[in-house]
Design a protein that fits this description.
The protein has about 90 residues and is mainly β. The chain is about 0% helix and about 35% strand. A two-stranded antiparallel sheet has the order 1-4. Strands 2-3 form a two-stranded antiparallel sheet. A hairpin with a 2-residue loop joins strand 2 and strand 3.
Length: about 90
């Protein structure tokens, strides 16, 4: 979420150790969420942390390995924090 009604997409670097940071202003911090997608043939140890007012609101550390040929839209996707809107 980049604000209360919009989401955004950004390409992450495939180089190990690179960090991605996004900032948003939300009326309801309970809506803070993101998804990290790793595409085949890559895999990654993903650390996702969402901070609200300098406090950790959500944190996930997980190895993500997409399955080749899968039709599952969540294949290789790590959700973190609140679910993103589907519409």
């Amino acid at each position: 979420m980049i604000n209360d009604t919009q989401t955004n997409t950004a390409t992450l670097s495939s180089l190990p150790g690179n960090a991605f940071q996004a900032n948003a202003v939300l009326a309801d911090p309970q809506k803070a969420g993101m998804q990290v997608a790793v595409h085949w043939p890559y895999s990654a140890n993903v650390h996702c942390e969402i901070d609200v007012d300098d406090n950790v609101a959500a944190q996930v550390d997980q190895f993500v390995r997409p399955v080749p040929g899968s039709t599952d839209p969540m294949n290789g996707v790590l959700p973190c924090g609140a679910p993103l809107p589907t519409s």
